[in-house]
Structures are given as structure tokens and as C-alpha cells.
């Protein structure tokens, strides 16, 4: 290993050491994480010591086993008879959704999303598609805890509900003693992912503990891995909720988090994957005292993330009480969610600032409108780029015009350098004065970039959040909502991944070409470092965009191609050196207005030069005294 290789390895080590040093969690973050874990442990301990432990879990037994039934009745009182019978399943479905229920607990066993597929990839990177189910993990909990006078908290997951299907409605009844019952009724609406749900408490008001007249609800959700880009899927999976009268909020997406809304009323809560969600929407009773927790899983876990929701419903203690809500089990489709009129569409992470508004009300409708005429989403992206470039061409023309005029002044700038070879500040001041004299604005080329930045940043949020691009192929990319793969690496590069995205490479290459072509006619001697920064930026961003949604890198690559084409055509066929020179001389002979940005900048540079000159003189005087 020669000295150059050793130096390279040392610099690489310093870069990685610096990266891990600056990205390591702070003491405050470590302390907060430890506090959260201690709090969770205390909550678990309290649950174990609470009334929940008064009623130990009981398996469903045969109704003919009189001894077992007697024991259940002694332990659970009138609820014991509902813990007998054979567990069974039943289903309801429509054109979009098929929901299978389990009689044990009267809960959803799984929900088949008919128009969408789950995609997986084996060790050889061979992709396959299969049916997409939500809420299918056997570890899931979806249960009500009934506070009773003498038997603690009775868990509905221990009761056996007898199902009865009629059309798109399933009624599940758990019969207690003395004609009392719990009834869960699910109605699936036609051509919809919405399910109306009602829990009826018939005649059990006298069994409720009046000192704790709140029906507790517990929902533990083990999210399945559905998408190819698991990192992005995990990042965009979390719990959203909306407090009554407030805007929606959510748990931290990047790390474990707990949000508690004590003594607050809540309109809805949603467990969100990247492109799908399962939501509970309150109807006749508001949700209260919500506690929402997200738990990240290990990289090799079969579960994407664990979401836990707990809240309460207030009970009126009437003879036949009903708690009504709606469930949404389906894709994150903006217009469909918006029809509910409760801001449920805010779960789609388009952004909350002006960029979110651009995504919701400009970019999204534009894509949808173009998709009505064009089948390929990749072609839609290219057409949208063309429209934007045409709309922004007046600004592009102004930028290129300014660059071309600055290029015409290179001989004059060269003369200034020869006149003041050792005074760069003087050269800069005289250059600014010359620009003002010839009517050239050095900032004229910034406007197209500034105008496009809100759109660019909005698209940065749009592509990985919009289900429009899910599993949509274009050229070699199999999914515009995930990264494209030109080749797999036999190893993993930190922050880069184990694959090479061809669209990202093409974007970087065209960015360097575009920067070189634009800057070769410009004088960079005043700030030579900028000459290299323009090439360093795309190389640095390779690490970021290599694992990003290919829809964005498709947009950036073809946007660069349009920029290059507009620049070459305009400079070659629109501008002429003679015409530009005449414009400069005509501007030079015009009377100049006082003021303006260039004049102020020139005055500031002149003042800075005077200060520097004064300092230099003072230093010289001090040397003479010594």
C-alpha cells in the first residue's frame, strides 16, 4: 500500500468517524429514550396489577362441557356463558374489499384489498406479487375492556360471538345470562372501503362499575411489510389522530414515540402504512383519553412496525347502549378520503406548509388530469416537465440572456485583472461597476432556479407519498414509488445501499454536463471554489437519491435534458454575438439611474475595500514603529 492509498483510507476513516460523531444521539435524546422505556415498563406493571388481572384469559370451551362452563361462570359471572362454543370465521365483501371475521372476539381476522398487490423479493432479487391483506397478523389485538362491578375488566377478545351474515352486513352476538348480550354489527358499504360498526351493550348497564363508567378500547397492530423499499415504508408508517376542533397530528415516524391526549376528545385515529391505512372514525360518541405509541422493529423482523392505540368511550349506563363508529380499511386515495369531510386525507404525507398545498391542489390534480389521457405514469411525468418548462421559459430566457451578456464582457474583465493583478477586491468592485454600466445583472440567472424550488421540493414529498405511482413501471424501473435497480452490489455501502439506481446516475451525469456548459463562459476567478462545488453537489446527492423514489429521479433526469436542450437551442439559434454586443453598447450609452441593488452592492464593496485598506495601512505603521 503506497502513501496515496494510506492517505485515502485515512481521509475515508475521518469522514465516517465525523459522520457517526455528528449523527450520534445526544445525551438528551438518550435520556428521553430511557425515560420512555421506563414509562412503558411502569405502564405494563400497572396493567398487570390492575383489574385486568382479575379476569385471567380463558379459552373458548365446548358448551356441552358442564364442568368447564360452571368454572367460567364462577370466574366471569354472566360473561362465562359467552366463553363457550366453537370458534369460526365468516366473511362479507364488495367489489373492492373482502373482510374475514373471527367469532372469537368478534373481530376482523384479515381484510383483502382486491385491486392492489403485495410485492416481495427473494434472496436472488426476483420479485413476485401476491394478494394484499391488512390486519392479518395473529398477534394483533382489537378489543374492548368492560369495567364490571365484581369481575374486573372483561375482555371482549375472550368472548365467542355467533356470526350471522345478511348481504354486506354481519351481526355477531355474544349471549350472556338473563337475556343480556353484546352485539357487534359490521356493514360494508357498496363500492367502498368504509365499514359501519356498532357495538351494542344490551342489558349489561347494571353490571358496569359506576365508579369507572368508561369502555376501554385497545388496538395493537403489527404492520406487515408490503412494499419493496422497506426503509421508506417504515418511515411513512405511523399513527395519525385528530383532536376535535384541531388539526391532525401524528407520532414520530423515525423513532419510537408516545403521544397522550388526556381529557381530550378525538374525532378519529388512523394506523397508516406508506400507501394504506386502517382508521377508526367516531360517530355518536367521541373518543377520549387517547394514548398512541409507535415501536420500531429490527431490520430482520417480519413486522414492519408496531402501532398501539388505546382510548376510552364514555358510557351513559342505559339499558341498551350503542357505540357507533366507522372503519376505513384501504388505500390512501386522496379524493376518497376527502369525501368523509373530516380531514382524514391529511394522513397522506404531502407536507403541511406551502409545499403540501402545492402537492394537494396543483401537482396532484395535474397528474390526475394528464393520467386521464396518458396510460404511462412515466410519460405523464415527462409531459408535466414539458408544460412546466414552457411556462418557465421566459425566466429561463432571461437567465440565458444574462449569462450570454456576461460572456461578452469577458475581454473587459480580463483587462481589469491585468490592470489590478494583485487586488482581487478591486477587480470585483470594478467588475460590479462595469456590470451596472452595461446593464448586466449577475443575479439574473437565479430566478428560474428560485421559481422552480417550491415545485422541486413539493415533488420531493409527492412521489413517495402518492399511491398513484405505486407499482407503476417505466422503462427499467418496476415501481416509480420505489428505487430503480440497474445492478446489485455484492455488499452494502452505508447511506448508499446495495444497489445502483440508473436514473440517479443519469441525473448526476446530466447535472454535471449542464453545470459545465452553463459555467464555461462565466468568470469564476473571484470565487474559484464555486467552480468545484457545482460538481461536488450531484456526487454527494448520489447517496441520498440512490434509495429514493424513482419517480423523482425520473423527473430530475428528464428535467435536466429539457434544460440542456433549451440552453443549447437558445444560445445557438436565438442569441448572436453581434446583437448582444450592440445591446451592451446601447445600454452603456443610456443615462444610469442612481440606486438599485447593483449600486448598493458596489457601495458595500467599496466600503469594505476602504476598511481593508485602512487595516493594511495600520499594520504597515505598526511594523515601522517596531
How would you portray this structure in words?
By secondary structure, the chain is α+β, with helices and mostly antiparallel strands. The protein folds into three domains: 89-349, Beta-galactosidase, Chain A, domain 5; 357-592, no CATH class; 601-626. It contains 16 helices and 20 strands. Strands 5, 6, 7, 8, 9, 10, 11, 12, 13, 14, 15, 16, 17 and 18 form a 14-stranded antiparallel β-sheet that branches. A hairpin with a 6-residue loop joins strand 16 (287-296) and strand 17. Helix 6 (354-371) packs across helix 11 (447-462) and helix 12 (502-519) packs parallel to helix 14. The longest helix has 29 residues, at 597-625. The model is unreliable at 42-58 (pLDDT under 50).
List keywords for this structure.
626 residues; alpha+beta; Beta-galactosidase, Chain A, domain 5; 3 domains; 14-stranded antiparallel sheet; 4-stranded antiparallel sheet; 41% helix; elongated
Topology of this protein?
Elements: H1 3-23, H2 27-49, H3 66-76, E1 89-93, E2 97-102, E3 107-121, E4 127-134, E5 141-147, E6 153-155, E7 162-166, E8 169-175, E9 181-188, E10 194-202, E11 214-224, H4 230-235, E12 238-243, E13 248-250, E14 257-272, E15 276-282, E16 287-296, E17 303-314, E18 320-331, H5 334-338, H6 354-371, H7 377-391, H8 393-408, H9 410-419, H10 424-438, H11 447-462, E19 487-493, E20 497-500, H12 502-519, H13 529-545, H14 550-574, H15 577-589, H16 597-625
Antiparallel strand pairs: 1-2, 2-3, 3-4, 5-6, 5-11, 7-8, 8-9, 9-10, 10-18, 11-17, 12-13, 12-14, 14-15, 14-16, 15-18, 16-17, 19-20
Helix pairs in contact: 6-7, 6-11, 7-14, 8-14, 10-16, 12-13, 12-14
